[in-house]
Amino acid sequence: MTDLSSSPATSKNQTDKSTRSGSGGKGDPAGRGRTTIADSVVEKIAAAAARDSVGVHSLGSGMARTLGSVRDRVPVGRPGASRGVSVEVGERQAAVDLDLVVDYGYPIADVATGVRTDVISAVERMTGLEVVEVNLAVGDVHLPDEEDDTPQSESRVT
Asked: How far apart are CA 121 and CA 113, in angstroms?
């Protein structure tokens, strides 16, 4: 076995093969199969990260939010989990497109930087995919005195 402490590593992921191969010599378990990640998984991760970003009121814009509020009344999965998000996922990379509504008073450029940082961090950390781009479309600004047009739970009985 090679002493790793005396040899400089060129990257934090570089290790001596003999330390990873285990006693059976079967190699790295990561090389024994294939993992695929559905677009919808990346959409949900990106949506959650974007919603948690400072200055983001909601995802989706205009017609997408209107149609989404009607669609969200059907109880299938988590309503609106990825509305306003579309992704393209490859074997090792992902690209994310987001439609945002920004809260009034927050500088849009700062919100965009924060959203990009949060989405890239979350997607890369949870999936291992490299996020090559995060495209944002700010379709609206939510004013403090506007009614929130996100769907509210309506009672079926009175």
From this structure: 12
